[in-house]
Amino acid sequence: MPSALPDLPLPAGIRSRLVPGINGLTMHVLEAGHEQPGRPCVLLLHGFPELAYSWRKVMLPLAQAGYHVVAPDHRGYGRTTGWDARYDGDVASFRFFNLVRDTLGLIAALGHRSVAAVVGHDFGSPLAAWCALLRPDVFRSVVLMSAPFGGPPGLPVTDPHTGAVVGTLGEPAGSAAHTPPAVPGGPAPTAAQMDAQLASLEVPRKHYQWYYSTPAADTDMRHCPQGIHSFLRAYYHHKSADWPDNRPFELASWAPAELARMPTYYVMHRRADMAATVAEHMPSAAAVAACEWLPEDQLRVYSGEFARTGFQGGLQWYRCGTLGLQVPEQQMFAGRGIEVPATFIAGASDWGVYQKPGELQRMAGPLCRRFEGITLIDSAGHWVQQEQPDAVVRHLLAFLARRHAA
Question: Per residue in 69-82, pLDDT tens?
Answer without folding.
Answer: 999 999 999 999 99
